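Kindly inspect what follows.
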Amino acid sequence: MKRKLILLLAIPAMAFLMPQKKKIKVFIAGDSTASIKETKAFPETGWGMPFVYFWDSTVTVVNKAKNGRSTSSFRNEGLWKQITDQAGEGDYVLIQFGHNDEVPTKKTYTTEAEFRNNLTQYVKETRDKNATPILITPVARRKFDANGKIEGTHEVYSQIVRDVAKAANVLLIDLDKKSQELYQSMGVETSKYLFNYLEAGQHPNYPDGKKDDTHFSELGARLIAQLVLKELKGLNIELTERVVSPVVKK
């Protein structure tokens, strides 16, 4: 009886002495496809919004992605510095750009050479903070040809991301490729549900309706976030040990 009592008393003591997991931050550097949306934009949703719910209490997701930003404007506006000021050993920085870098008519346009250099610098500065950079190709837009086959719209800039990842030996998530596969599996019509598609009068935020093949609905953001999580698990990194454990009902 005494032995059982000692054992029962020892269990909580042992739990107290067990090393606690170090708290870490996961930063998202990116554009509108990942950003936190204002209420007036709802149901438009960035994939970084549902992404926060995948992790246990030891992980804090810091989403610095912002609408309309490129690798250049993200730095120029001080958003990148906000990340490097906070990032430290054991943290992760997810870097996804391309949508605004690649469009020559936008003020945020970044040449191919500049884009490559910016990504390289982001990787270096993340590593300087002893954090882990993860490059992500720009998530695909919804574009099908006349035969219902998905078409890529980021070929050049996605390839630059892949090239930088290879040259710098950086972890890579090819979200462009994976999201294209998702849209193709759903088909021309069903894939619209992933995006901010609304008929006139369907939502007060868009009284005239909306047909947007770039920005996600709540469903689309969640499925893209799930894609990112799945690819992270495939990288075999410590971070994925922090995925929240489901509560099992007895």
